[in-house]
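Q: What structure does this chain adopt?
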Amino acid sequence: MIRLATAADAPRLFDLMRKLAAFEGYAERFAVTVKELHERGFATEQPKEFVAWIAERDGEPSGYAVAYVVPFTFDLRPTVVVKELFVEACARGDGCGSRLFAAIARFARSIDARLLRWQVLPDNVAAKRFYARVGGRADAAWESWVLDLDEARS
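A:
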């Protein structure tokens, strides 16, 4: 089952995020806390910075997705950025990832977004195969660049 995450899911979401951080090799830099999840995604007194979905299998979390909205781009329509999509090893291959991705796509259509965007680690061949199966393709028109402001000189 896939459903929108609620404030009560913050601890479960946090646990899954830590697992993704370990899987992708940035666990030592992982700074998310349950408190930050509450404040940034579930607090009612400020705009939400993200939307999250939880996948459950036998009542236990088996995956999650986090996305955020860029309100408009060149065509004055939103773009939804899939920030994270993670499925526990025990649930891979059972359609959990496809259902999470479909939930994001439904959300994007509901706000009239034109594009979904995401990044994939270069050596994550399984993720690339998965995204190709759900209709995604590498964006040859753009390169992903980054400036680490903590490391950059003024």
